[in-house]
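hi got a favour to ask and not much time before my train. below you get a single protein, a line of residues and a line of whole numbers that encode the local backbone shape. could you go over both lines and see whether the tokens make sense for that sequence. a few lines back from you is plenty, here it is:
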Amino acid sequence: MKSWPEKKTLMCLSLAVMAVLGIFAGKGVARPQLFVPDPITGYAIGGNDPVSYFVDGQPRKGDRRHELSWGGAEWVFVNEGNMAAFERNPETYAPMFAGCGGYALSEGFATAGSPYIYAVVEGRLVFFHSVVNRFLFVVNGGQLVKDAQENAASVGCMPEK
């Protein structure tokens, strides 16, 4: 038979566990912020120009003199030409899955992708949480893209319309 202090400790621990589970149960699925905003400026994809991934083959920091709102985020561009290209066709240049990690999405999870771990897949920019995830996604391609597309809306990885 357990002593009163032991029972009291067990009851307190049980209540604490139930409280924590209750808190998380009501929250639903957590998701990263759309388009991976820079923690200081708030600019989408870490303040990088989305068009630069296609034009320069790598991310380049945008200039706040070339700023545009789209999809619930603020975007910055290297120059006016890149901003105009994005404005004409944002879905072409904005990261697929609103910046969430592509591989994790194919598995049904939402993770924040990194603007520095990316690939252009089927003509779209895709971010990843890790280089391993990037490798697995690129190597296995087609079906994983479809799986990620199917899961994106249910975990909150779609841009605002």
Remarks:
- The chain has six helices and four strands.
